[in-house]
Amino acid sequence: MTTFDAQIASAVSERADSVALVDAPNRDTFFSGEPLRLTWTHVDAAVDAVALSLQEAGVTAGNAVAIQLPNCAELPISILACTRIGAIATPFPIQHREHELRHGLSTSGARHLITGARPDRPDLLDASAAVLAEFDATMLTFGSDHPNPDRRLDLDSGGTPAPHIAVPTDTATICWTSGTTGTPKGVPRSHAMWLATSGFQVAELELGPDDRILCPFPVVNMAGIGGMLVPWIETASRLVLHNPIDLGVFLGQIATEQITYTVAPPPLLNMLLRNDTMLE
């Protein structure tokens, strides 16, 4: 068994100049910046840049780092940056607001939050900052929309973090249950646990480096991380992100990006069944 970072190193070694990570074409509707299209070399450098910024902000191995981002390139890169330095990524669904953030920080012990301004939540950064102040916690933001972030993150800032050697049994993430039967609960998983769930998918689906994976699930839970992100790094393939859910964009991505593998969540299938024009 291996670790996330070892998988990335292998991908960079074997497929340095191959396209690895692709944003949705409608990125500007849910996050700042132009859609990104990154090679494995660029992904590796971006992970380094964010990892270094985390260390400079005081994050050390074993610390939990909260993340709340939509399905943009910065989300998987932030998760991988945490694991690169031995920190524990704890991504929150974008639907979570102050109550859930407060509970998540309290439960996980996270004292850093990676986030960024979103068109659908103009109050997000100020509201998050107010909760973080209760915990004497630090906000790290992508983009320049917030006037007083503790630290801004930039995928192109360069630099290399202090090295950390992870082992497969290290905790990689804390993900959250949906909360449908009570308060969301944090579920820790190690590198080995994630790679075990990924391995059988890769084998049974015969996924390989030439595959193009379209991810319509938030990269914050079992479906998004275990079903999409981890198979991506394990196979050194291409991950195309979709921010749930826009049927037209999703179908367009399948055609434009020549997708070879995806999973359609039930709400998307319902949209398709109700759209006679698209069915024809």
- How would a textbook summarize the main sheet? 5 strands, mixed
Instruction: Assign the structural class, choosing from mainly alpha, mainly beta, alpha/beta, alpha+beta, or little secondary structure.
Output: alpha/beta
Alpha plus pi helix count: 10
The low-pLDDT segments are none
Task: Give the end-to-end Cα distance, rounded to a whole number of Å.
Answer: 47 Å
Instruction: List the domain count as a whole number.
Output: 1
Report the portion of residues in β strands. 15-25%
CATH superfamily: ANL, N-terminal domain
Mean pLDDT over the residues: 94
Report the strand count: 12
The CATH class turns out to be: Alpha Beta
Second rung of CATH, namely the architecture: 3-Layer(aba) Sandwich
Outline the structure in words.
It is a single chain. Helix content is 40%, strand content 18%. With 280 residues, the chain is of the alpha/beta class. The protein has one domain (4-17, 39-205, 218-236): Rossmann fold, CATH 3.40.50.12780. The strands form three sheets. It has a five-stranded mixed β-sheet with strand order 2-1-11-10-12. Helix 7 (222-235) links the parallel strand 10 and strand 11. Helix 2 crosses helix 3 (74-84) and helix 6 (191-205) packs across helix 7 (222-235). The protein is globular.
